[in-house]
Amino acid sequence: MVNASGTRAVARCEELGVAPYSVTDDFLYRGYLSAAHAAAVNRTAEWMREAGMSVRMDTAGNLIGRYEASQAGRKALLIGSHIDTVRNGGRYDGVLGVMLAIECVAYLNETGRRLPFAIEVIAFGDEEGSRFPVAMLCSRAVIGQDVTGTPDLVDGDDISLAEALDTFEHSITIPMPEGRLSASRRHPGDILGYLEAHIEQGPVLEAENLSVGAVSGIAAQLRFEYTLKGEAGHAGTNAMHLRRDALAGAAEIMVEIEKLARSGAPDEVATVGSIQALPGAANVVPGEVKFMLDVRAGDDERRNLLSDRIRTVARDICEQRRLSLSIRKLQDLAASPSDPGFVQMMEDALEATGHPRKTLVSGAGHDAMILSELCPSVMLFIRCAGGVSHNPAEKVDPADADEALEVMLKFLDLMEARADAQFVQTD
């Protein structure tokens, strides 16, 4: 009897949802290169080995398990997702895709089957950007992007990326190679494609009573740091009409951001998810405010237009309130369509396993949009209760995970059926 199952994948997500796989017992948070990340890497590596894979780390802190092809020197199909979380996050976002990838390999190994291409299960260390102010650091490293711009990138505790990598290296059981993050770059000639299973971060599948669906593309994203500077002063002695209150200005801007986003199409969204007011005392008028702005839409043009409208409104408000404004772009991710051929194969896999040929667009960003610059990529969405994500309430039915695994295995069957020497051999 084959033990591989989506149900086991769900159980493993639950296991990784508590300490030591979280930096705190109060809620789940597994930040990039933290002690919790190291613990999750060590445990996930054990499961990879049990499934029949050899295991290694790259210079970015990505865990990679390889299941060899029927012949040496073949390209690899990458299957995976990320294992980091947002603060107070859920137990399935990202990590379920890694666990299901392991189950795919476990099934092949238990049935004694080798494919004409290798499979590499990859657990990206950072996708969320919840520790350092750049998201998807690890998938960016895999495609060879200069992910930091500087080795002095620091987190909220002023710990540099270099320092964090050094601490992490001494906390994991798998040796890490030497080199900068960019040394993790993979050669396109070695990679067949990328498959990522992920919970749907919205209620579309649930509303249509579907357990799984293929992702046809990922929305465009922009992320900025807005800094407003006014003048700090005593809360009791500064008359209201004379104040240059940076926080009041930021609050007005945020109300306008919401109005602008609501006036657009349903896929146009803007979010202020982080704010810092300085000096941060109850009896001091805030003299400086920094906030993070995330802007998304289904295409680059509408995303850019919304971002420009927000910028114009913010400048007008700051001028009226005698505040200075600086805006720093942190992230620019173009809309990322999935590979048409891979989407068709995923639809075929859905149909072959008794599911409708359902496709949908992801409003959330994923490592797949980065990997699409390296190789053909596709995603499989799995129903999540209420479409809730980035929240402890994330919940996946084990039966849905079992169905997702069945679809993924069928996708592998279809990949095998179209394989030939030219298709799978490395350049």
Automatic annotation (TrEMBL):
Allantoate binds at residues 223, 283, 296. GO terms for molecular function: hydrolase activity, acting on carbon-nitrogen (but not peptide) bonds, in linear amidines; metal ion binding. Its cofactor is Zn(2+); Mn(2+). Residues 223-319 form the Peptidase M20 dimerisation domain. Keywords: Hydrolase, Manganese, Metal-binding, Zinc. Zn(2+) 2 binds at residues 93, 128, 390. The keyword Zinc applies. Zn(2+) 1 binds at residues 82, 93, 198. Binds 2 Zn(2+) ions per subunit. Homodimer. Belongs to the peptidase M20 family. This is Allantoate amidohydrolase. The lineage of its organism: Bacteria, Pseudomonadati, Pseudomonadota, Alphaproteobacteria, Hyphomonadales.
